[in-house]
Amino acid sequence: MNRAERLSAVLDLLAEDGQVEVEQIVERLGVSPATARRDLDALAQQQLLTRTRGGAVAHSVAYDLPIRYKHQQNPEAKAAIARAASALVPRGAVIGLCGGTTATAIADELMSRADIMEPASDPGLTIVTNAINIAMQLAMRPQIKTVVTGGVVHARSYELVGSYAEGVLGNISLDLAFIGANGIDTVVGPTSHDEREAAVNALMARRATRAVLVVDSTKLDRRAFAAIGERRLFQTVITDAASTAEQRSRLVDAGFDVIVAS
To answer: Are 145 and 174 in contact, with CB atoms under 8 Å apart?
Structure first.
């Protein structure tokens, strides 16, 4: 069992009754107590649970999410991408976040920033999102002004799609938009498995001064079903260090600014 599978198994144990002990993880997963504690600490850093003495208790939001959130691929790469994305965000900015596991990691990273969380008369950040899981997390942070687009819930992703979402996005302006994709290549640009998600994500990107693609290296040189807007819609791509020099070079040649998250 690799680390990603083990973390997912810990979440499954936690989902059974809302709490889990180190000894329970050791017995069920066959790992050492030190490994169990490190896994709990890692999940706590992602705000997927709350550590207690000898174990952890569940956050109310984390265990009702679709399967893709519980069995996340490449969590270390996505955490690195989230840190790089956060570095682009000044305090007080207005940003857009689509749904998906990478955008959720970005939300977690932004919520951990001391300058944003500092109490003040004005919002430390304004986040516009069509992802209801992200909105639920942000709702517990009064220093962040959270705007939800509205729309019809897509059961697979917890993203709001359709004309209601598009109506809200068509009347706002963003400083930055962070958009995930299921694939990106230099011919058609970013793509999504779902045309409804693609339409909302493209509009969010168009409403931003700077539109940023956040994709881990497994999404490079791949195409999915629906294009996320026109190829020149995005100026910047953030990917992880597992991407090859050739892949990054092709993106640069296609006109993207490439940020490699480490």
So the answer is: no
Sequence-ordered alpha helix ranges (H) in 112-162: 114-117, 132-138
pLDDT at residue 4, as a whole number: 75
In sequence order, what DSSP letters do the residues of 178-247 get, joined into one string? EE--SEEETTTEEEES-HHHHHHHHHHHHTEEEEEEE--GGGBT---SEE-S-GGG--EEEEETTS-HHH
The Cα-based distances of 67 to 28, 63, 159, 165, 242 in angstroms read: 21, 9, 14, 23, 25
Structure tokens at 154: 């897509």
User: Phi/psi at 96 (nearest 5 deg)?
Assistant: -110, 140
CA distance 161 to 100: 13
Q: What are phi and psi of 23, to 5 degrees?
A: -60, -35
pLDDT digit string, tens, across residues 128-176? 999 999 999 898 888 999 999 999 998 778 899 999 999 999 999 999 9
Amino acid (1-letter code) at residue 218 = T
- What is the per-residue pLDDT across 18-67, written as a single tens digit (0 to 9) for each? 789 999 999 999 999 999 999 999 888 877 788 999 999 876 544 445 54
Position 48 scores a pLDDT of 78
pTM tops 0.90: no
Phi then psi for 196, rounded to 5 degrees? Answer: -70, -45
- Comparing C-alpha atoms, which of 217, 224, 227 is closest to residue 251? 217
| Cα dist from 148 to 45, 138, 228, 243, whole Å | 25, 10, 20, 33
